[in-house]
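User: Before I run my own analysis I want an independent prediction to cross-check against. Here's the chain; please return only the structure tokens and, at the end, one sentence I can use as a sanity check.
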Amino acid sequence: MSSQRRPSPQAIQLLAAFLVEARTWRYGYDLSKETGLGAGTLYPLLDRLAKQGLLESEWLPSELEGRPPRHAYRLTRSGATFAQSWQEAPAPRGKLRPARS
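Assistant: Structure tokens:
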């Protein structure tokens, strides 16, 4: 990832799902069920992570005859390293406020 900005909670949740089976191709529908992320959040995230080189994507033939190919995703090596770094990083605790006298 080119910036050092902390990924959104949704991105961290999605990356954590990929870490469970880092080298396995995953489908958006299955990731949606696993993470609870809706299509309007999930698919833009998958696209952004793929453009950043953290995921690779590919059209895979359907396992069911007569069905169209499905778009699948999996972590790249740099994506796995990135995902692990955010799994180990503590979440920020919010903004500091001045003490009251």
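Sanity check: The mean pLDDT is 86.
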